[in-house]
UniProtKB/TrEMBL annotation:
The keyword Hydrolase applies. This is PP2C family protein-serine/threonine phosphatase. Residues 182-402 form the PPM-type phosphatase domain. It comes from Mariniradius sediminis. It comes from the Bacteria. InterPro entries: Bact_Sigma-Reg, PPM-type-like_dom_sf, PPM-type_phosphatase-like_dom.
C-alpha cells in the first residue's frame, strides 16, 4: 500500500513537471525561461540533486544548465570529443584535468533523428529512491526539441530579414545606374552588367549636362556584398553632386578621394575611370584612377589605344600622391570601351584568366562596330573561353560609339 502511494505521488509530480514544461512551450517563452523552468521542475518535482545540461551549437556542445555540480566542468565541448555508442549505450567525453564528470551518476543523450542535440547529467537526491530515467529523458527531449525548433525559427526569420535587406539594397543599387542609355546616330551606348551576387560592387554611369557634352564613367569598389554596395552608392551621390557644379576633372577626382577617405579612413578604395567629351570642340578629357585603362578606338585610323593617364586608386590616401588628366583632340568617329577587372579576370577550367591582351586582340578585330553587336560577339567569346566555370567577380562592360 505504501509503495502504491509513493508511486502515485511520483506520477503526480511527474505530471506537474510535464504540464509546466508544455505550458511554457505553448506560451512561447524565451529560451532562458524554458531552461529555468526545466531546471526548477527537475529539482523540485523529480528526485534530482545535481543537474548539468549541454546543448549542441554548430560544432560544439555548450553548457546551458549547471546546478549542484561541485567538480569543475567545461563551458564548451567540441563535438569531436563526444563519443556515444548506441549499441552499448556508453558515453565517453574527452576531458583533461581539472575537468571531471565523475560525481554525476547518470547521463541521458538526447537525439533528433541521428543527430545528438543534448547531453543531460544527473545525480539523485535520495539513495533509497531511484530516478525515473525514462520520464526524465522524455521530458528532456520535449524541452530540447522545443528549444531547437525555436532556434531554427529564429534563424529562418533572420535569413528572411537578411534576404529582404539584400533585395532592397539590390533595388536601390539598380536605381543608381542610368535607366536609359543614348541610342542615336550621334551617340550610341551599350552596357552589360553581370553582378557576382545579388548586390554588386561595380558602378557605371553616363551623364549629359547639356546637348554639347557628356560624362561617362566606370568604377569598382574593393570588397563585395553590402559594404561595397553602400560605399558605391555614397560614391555615386558625391559624383553626381560634383558634376552639377564643375567640369574640372582634377577637382572632381580630388573631392571624390577626400569623401571616400573620410568615410573609410583608407580601409577601402575605389578604382575609377572618368571621361568627358565635348561634341563641338571634339575633345576628350579623362582621368584614370587606378582602373583598367579604357580603350579608345579610332575609326578613321583603324587603331586602338589604352587611356591610362590619371592617378592612383581613390580612397587609399588622404591626398592623392599625383594626378594628371589625359586629353585627345580632333575626335569625330570613335568608340570607347570601359570595363572592370571581373571581365579580364574571368577564369577557364584550367584557371587561366581571360586577360587584358585577349581583350585587346578582340577589340582590334572588331574596331568601331556597333556597340550592341560588339557585346553580343564578345560575351559569346568570353563564355566559350570560361567553359561554364564559376564567375568570381562582378563583370561590367560599357561601350560608347560617337559619330
Amino acid at each position: 500500500m505504501e509503495k502504491s502511494i509513493v508511486k502515485y505521488q511520483r506520477k503526480e509530480l511527474e505530471l506537474k513537471a510535464l504540464l509546466e514544461i508544455t505550458q511554457a512551450i505553448n506560451e512561447n517563452k524565451p529560451a532562458a525561461v524554458l531552461l529555468d523552468i526545466f531546471k526548477f521542475t527537475c529539482l523540485v518535482h523529480l528526485n534530482i540533486r545535481s543537474i548539468l545540461l549541454y546543448m549542441v551549437n554548430q560544432d560544439h556542445f555548450e553548457k546551458r544548465i549547471s546546478h549542484g555540480v561541485k567538480n569543475k566542468v567545461p563551458d564548451i565541448i567540441s563535438d569531436r570529443k563526444v563519443h556515444y555508442d548506441k549499441d552499448s549505450g556508453q558515453l565517453h567525453i574527452e576531458v583533461e584535468a581539472p575537468y571531471s564528470f565523475s560525481e554525476l551518476e547518470n547521463y541521458l543523450p538526447v537525439f533528433h533523428k541521428e543527430k545528438m542535440l543534448a547531453i543531460l547529467f544527473l545525480k539523485k537526491k535520495e539513495e533509497k529512491e531511484d530516478l525515473d530515467l525514462d520520464f526524465t529523458q522524455a521530458l528532456t527531449n520535449i524541452m530540447v526539441v522545443a528549444l531547437e525548433n525555436k532556434r531554427f525559427a529564429k534563424r529562418q526569420l533572420e535569413q528572411e530579414r537578411l534576404r529582404k535587406e539584400v533585395e532592397i539594397a539590390s533595388n536601390v543599387q539598380r536605381m543608381l545606374f542610368p535607366a536609359v542609355l543614348p541610342d542615336s546616330q550621334k551617340m550610341r551606348a551599350k552596357v552589360t552588367y553581370i553582378p557576382h551576387s545579388t548586390v554588386g560592387g561595380d558602378y557605371y554611369d553616363l551623364i549629359q549636362p547639356s546637348e554639347e557634352e557628356v560624362f561617362f564613367c566606370i568604377a569598382d569598389v574593393s570588397g563585395k556584398g553590402m559594404p561595397a554596395a553602400l560605399l558605391m552608392s555614397n560614391f555615386q551621390a558625391a559624383l553626381r553632386t560634383l558634376l552639377r557644379s564643375t567640369r574640372d576633372l582634377k577637382m572632381i577626382v580630388e573631392q571624390l578621394n577626400y569623401t571616400i577617405y573620410d568615410n573609410t579612413k583608407g580601409e577601402r578604395f575605389i578604382t575609377f575611370f572618368l571621361g568627358h567629351y565635348h561634341f563641338k570642340n571634339r575633345t576628350l578629357q579623362y582621368v584614370n584612377a587606378g582602373h583598367n585603362p579604357a580603350v579608345l578606338c579610332w575609326e578613321g585610323e583603324q587603331r586602338s589605344e589604352n587611356l591610362g593617364a590619371g592617378t592612383t586608386v581613390i580612397g587609399a590616401f588622404e591626398v592623392l600622391p599625383f594626378l594628371e588628366t589625359g586629353q585627345r583632340s580632333h575626335l569625330t568617329n570613335f568608340t570607347v570601351h570601359l570595363y572592370t577587372d571581373g571581365l579580364t579576370e574571368r577564369f577557364n577550367k584550367a584557371e587561366e584568366p581571360y586577360g587584358d591582351e585577349r581583350f585587346m586582340q578582340f577589340v582590334r578585330k572588331k574596331l568601331c562596330i556597333d556597340p550592341h553587336r560588339f557585346h553580343e560577339l564578345f560575351f559569346k567569346e568570353l563564355e566559350q573561353f570560361a567553359e561554364s566555370s564559376e564567375q568570381t567577380d562582378d563583370v561590367t562592360l560599357l561601350s560608347i560609339r560617337f559619330q
